[in-house]
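For the sake of transparency, this paper describes our internal protein records without simplification. The record that follows is passed on verbatim for readers who wish to inspect the format:
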Amino acid sequence: MTEKRKPKIITYSNERQKAIVSILWAYNWVIDKLRYIYEEEDLTLQQYNILRILRASPAPLSTLQIREQMLDKMSDTSRIVDRLVIKKLVKKVPCKGDKRLVDITITTKAVKVIDKLAKKEEHMDEILKSLSLTEAKTLHKLLDKISHFHH
């Protein structure tokens, strides 16, 4: 008979390391919840992020300009844009100023998809329902402080 193993208790060398692990755990949990919402519209998180960036832009953007604004800087922006073209959510046209580049614009179809997702804000709010509005604001300030410390 084998002896049942007890789960290992994770120890951290300090509170900052513990906080980093907690941030990573929470990040993955939130991403899983968001993925479910975007998949209902046949979008990945990266595709939605590109559509959000394009919608906010008053002018067409290049793939480089989009990549600079993306949450995930390691994304293959060109490939993601190509998939959005296939879905008829964005258009690629040669850049007037530089024929080596392409301008990417959002389509009316994509705007409708984004509007539909905006109506699901309550589902997104549910992700952080355990936090009061004050706690959510504090969390945002702390995360912002962490991310801007190294810039």
Notes: The chain has a mean pLDDT of 89. The chain has one domain: 15-124.
